[in-house]
């Protein structure tokens, strides 16, 4: 019965086994690459909209909140439909998540410029 209790000597083996798990490593890399660029955006976007476009706080929060929620919801729905129809294996899904996270992190500045341009047109069309 004492053989089932883990010891400190088992820790390096457990870490080595976790580090060799491709799916876990792809998912961890994906999470990190998604959170890094998004954290700053969602934190400071309302204040940026307030200062650059002279929007009131409630409008800036509404634009940034709804935009983020709608895009996330659309991504979840499209991903669910894709997984239901194609039925990919777990390794493919994990690799796809990591790949899109890398593309997202590399190409993040360009879409931001496009979003700012679209927002500029939207704000000035309302005034």
Automatic annotation (TrEMBL):
Pfam families on file: OATP
Transmembrane portions of the chain: 24-45, 66-86, 92-110
One annotated GO biological process: sodium-independent organic anion transport
GO molecular function ontology, one term from the record: sodium-independent organic anion transmembrane transporter activity
Listed InterPro entries: MFS_trans_sf, OATP
Gene Ontology CC entries for this record: basolateral plasma membrane
Keyword Membrane set for record: yes
Keywords per UniProt: Disulfide bond, Membrane, Transmembrane, Transmembrane helix
Coiled coil: none
PANTHER family: ORGANIC ANION TRANSPORTER, SOLUTE CARRIER ORGANIC ANION TRANSPORTER FAMILY MEMBER 74D
Protein name, entry field: Uncharacterized protein
Organism: Ladona fulva (Scarce chaser dragonfly)
